[in-house]
Task: structure prediction
Amino acid sequence: MHLTTDCPPRRVVITGLGVIAPNGCELETFWNSVREGQSAAGLVTRFDASELPNRVACEIQDFDPSRYMDAKKSRRLELSIRYGLAAARMATTDAGVNFAQLDPDRAGIVEGTSVSGTESILRGHETYLERGYKAISPFTMINAYGGGGCGEIALELGAKGHAITLNTGSASGNDALGYALGMIRSDEADVMLAGGSEAPLIRPLFSAFCIARVMTSRNDSPLTAMRPFDETRDGFVLGEGAGFLVLEELTHALGRGAKIYAEIGGYGRSCEAYHSVSPHPDGKGMCRAMEKALRSARMDVTQVDYINAHATATELNDTAETNAVKTLFGDWSRRVGISGTKPVTGHLLGAAGAVESIITALAIHHRTIPPTANHSTPSAGCDLDYVAGTARPYPIRAAMNLSVGFGGKNACLVFKEYSRA
Result:
């Protein structure tokens, strides 16, 4: 692979992490469950799913919004915004940064989401049909549009600089981080808060996923229902939650004595323009995104020790993703540890990339590759090292996180162990 030789870009490190997920609303609890491969899946309780063919989901059970916002704000905001605001608050606290005290022109917020606002739109429509337009809450305006979450986070944190929301389906979280990386590298910012939030466990939307036949039908065994790369896989488990990371220019972080989880080295994206929902069988678009991310990081495939895969446990995605890794990595593909962590967290759609980037950063920080839960018998065509069974202690030099959205939108990030050199 050809690596550019011009002046290196500004280095960007991760100094804060915040996560609200089905498997934990505290960073330590979250990481322990990922490391142990403990699934948060169960039967749907958020609504009556008794007539649906797929009834397994990863629901958040222990979220306490009062820890992150006042009761008045919590009542008027829809769930996806509450999750995002909480994760953002957690990340900035973890990093020890106060956006209200930063130069507003040197800091910003980027949020990724795909269906945020759907709950409010549906509720508003029901209210209109039942009681007329005067009964609709005025807060529907804030909740129903996709950029509401980013605006509320900026308002809560006193962040008066750059603020934007991206929607590229399940690639949204990775794209948000990639956008933030670009802002810092191009010297437009020193600190960026980036991540994603999603609350898709709504009956009409959940039903649409049932019709699309992309979710597992193992209603009798929720904990082992999702099985990436396994010959018995039959789809994913839908989840909800949010993840945000504080990205910071290296000298800025060192100047204030910040702790550093990992360095974020590169970002690449592509669009296959192949099919509305299915990836190219050869994983061509995924391969291009990964290759561009490595080029952005000025790294070679032999420097990558771990890949956090998109791993939806659908027949087409898992095979295409495996093909993409083989094409790009060649012989090195047999030496890379690959794990799909969605069996633990659920598929968080627009928040997936952000939450899985947190997992990737923690894997580097703790020098541990998390397992692919419920993987036992590799499927034909899925014959790489998927770290089945238990977590693997390993000094990860560099890792990739790949996310794939409907329409063939692919986004890949490269993370690496931080070194002062």
